[in-house]
Each structure stands twice: as C-alpha cells, then as structure tokens.
Specification:
This protein has 352 residues and is mainly beta. The chain contains one helix and 28 strands. The radius of gyration is 20 Å and the shape is globular.
Length: 352
C-alpha cells in the first residue's frame, strides 16, 4: 500500500510540474478537427493569428481574409492587396501590415475595420513580413530586389533599406537581443540584422540545411528552427550561429512554427505532412509525430491559446499529360479552405 501511495504522489507531482500540459507529452496526437471554407479564386500564401482578438488572417490573391477563430467563419476581408504574400500583426497598435508583391508596397490596415489606412513603397516583390515590437517597426523582405524595407509604424515611412546577399525567405524576431533573422534561400544562409542600426551584423551558413525556407524562434532559449528543402529541420543557436540539432522532415517545406508553451516545433510540407518535434533542451530535438494533412498544404500558423495549427489547402484540376517542372496544377475555383488540427475535438458549431 505504501508503494502504491508513493507512486500516486509521484504521478500527481509530475502532472503539476507539467503545468497542466500533459496532453502534450509523449502520447501527443494531433488530429483533424474540421475545415473552414474560404472559397474564392487564386492562390494563397502566409497565414497569421491574432490570438488576443481571436482572428486568423489568410493572404489570398488580392486580399487578406479574416476568420473568427472561435466561430470558424469568415468575418471580413482586406481588399486591394495585389499579389499579397504575408500579413504581420501589431496587436498593441491594432494594425496589420500586408506585403503586396505585385505592386511592391505594404498596406497599413486598421484591424477593427479592415480598412487600408496607407500604402508604403518597398523593394520589388515584398514577401515575408514581420513586426518588431521593441522599436515598433515592420520589416518587409523583398524577394526580387534582395533587400529588406524597414517601416516606422508611427509615421508609416521607410527608415531603412537593407541590401541582402540573396533571396530572402521567412524571418523571425528576437526583441530581447535586438535582432531580426532572415533565411537567405539561395545562399543557404541566415542573416542577422541589428534592429537598432538596421545593419547586417552576421551571416551564418546553414551547412547541412539546403534552401532554408520556414523560420521560427524560441525567445527563451534563443534557438532558431529552420525548415530546409533537403528534408531537414535545423536548430540553430541564435547567439552564435552554431547548429546544435537536426531532425528529418517532409518534402517541400514552407512554414515552420514554434509553440513556446508546449515546446513543440511544426514544419508543414507540400507532400501533405507536418513534422512535429519537441525541443527537449537547448541542444536536443525529438520527433513525436508525423501528421498527415493534404498534398499542397504547406503554409501554416498556430494559435497560442488553443495550441491548434491551421493550414491552407484546396482542390486541384487533374493534370493532363506530362507535368511541367515547376508548374503548379490549377486550383479549382471556390475550393480554398483552412484545415484545423489539434488535440481536442471541436464543438459541433465549429466543424465545417
């Protein structure tokens, strides 16, 4: 009886130490929780979440679609965003910033009304975009002109243009260190920008990682998670560029996300998988699940409140003849949707 009591005490203490997150332990299993219909025509790119306002934003052709996370329905759209790629959120400013690739401008959006307040010129084809809260600035990374445009949010003016050594992909921010990190896809490298001086202060090779795409960060351990196109995800020390761990991932990675509460890293890949790994320590990663999604569902974001992940997907027309290298199949009209995955079932009214 005494042994059994000790076992019980140990078990209870273990649960308390986990802070109520035992669902994210070794038995973790993310599973489908429903779909949200978006519809419309054209492609899509980045997804982003405003957790406090309970909004999911989906960039889609010439607009940004706003979805109520709790009701799982479309509630509005930001119009006139030609070739939109990303949507950065500044919660304390109640503003959003879209990178409009086809017009080489960033739209400044009132998140309450979804109206565009201003447009700021950038380099050619702005793609990834992030908000740096320490200095309240927005960084738009310009794919065609190999540069970063820094926008001061107080005046909506450009305060710096930073030349980059190649084609930028995604970026991550460490306000504590005063750093902005960006993958340089065609150079197999990560550049480190000083948010005070707007200068490149380091360029680090990704060595075993080729064509780095997705990028996320643990702001506590100062570790970068880099999804690469040679089917690897790297964990890099954000203070010195050392690669401290790697794990295999699927083919065609696009997005990488990190959940600081559960210490889980997600890599969404075009082959229809999400590799989920746990940051066991500042030098160890462990794969805990390979989640099957849908082919082509490679852009992703996550909700810090519910720990759910969201991926964009659609149906495609059947290809006739031999596929052309680099050519994507045509999207069937009105088929765009958001796939929802989590560890608990959706209420009936959320399932679509």
């Amino acid at each position: 009886m005494k042994n059994n009591r000790n076992v019980l005490i140990f078990w209870v203490l273990g649960l308390l130490c986990l802070g109520g997150l035992s669902a994210f332990g070794a038995e973790l299993s993310y599973r489908p929780m429903g779909e949200i219909h978006v519809g419309g025509d054209g492609g899509w790119d980045y997804l982003s979440v405003d957790a406090a306002a309970r909004r999911l934003y989906v960039t889609h052709a010439t607009q940004v679609v706003a979805i109520d996370l709790d009701r799982a329905v479309v509630v509005g759209k930001v119009e006139d965003a030609p070739g939109v790629h990303g949507f950065a959120i500044a919660p304390e400013l109640h503003r959003g910033y879209s990178s409009n690739g086809r017009e080489s401008r960033v739209s400044v959006v009132d998140l309450a009304t979804l109206q565009t307040l201003a447009k700021v010129p950038t380099g050619e084809n702005p793609d990834a975009i992030v908000y740096e809260p320490g200095r309240r600035e927005v960084y738009a990374f310009n794919g065609r002109s190999h540069s970063a445009t820094v926008i001061e949010t107080a005046s909506n003016t450009v305060v710096a243009t930073i030349a980059l050594p190649g084609k930028p992909e995604f970026a991550a921010v460490d306000s504590e260190l005063g750093r902005v990190y960006c993958n340089i896809e065609d150079q197999n490298a990560v550049v480190v920008l000083d948010s005070r001086t707007h200068q490149i202060i380091q360029t680090w090779p990704t060595t075993v990682g080729e064509e780095p795409a997705g990028l996320a960060m643990d702001p506590i351990t100062h570790r970068l998670f880099i999804g690469c196109h040679n089917n690897r995800m790297l964990m890099m020390n954000a203070t010195n560029g050392a690669i401290v761990a790697t794990v295999p991932i699927g083919t065609g990675v696009d997005a990488t996300a990190f959940d600081p509460e559960t210490h889980l890293v997600f890599n969404s890949c075009g082959d229809g998988t999400v590799t989920i790994a746990r940051e066991e320590s500042s030098e160890k990663l462990t794969i805990i699940q390979t989640l099957t999604t849908e082919r082509g569902a490679r852009t992703m974001t996550w909700d810090p409140r519910t720990h759910r992940i969201y991926l964009a997907s659609a149906r495609y027309e059947a290809q006739v003849g031999t596929p052309v290298a680099g050519q994507r199949p045509k999207i069937i009209s009105d088929s765009l949707k958001i796939l929802v995955y989590g560890t608990e079932p959706l209420p009936d009214h959320e399932t679509k």
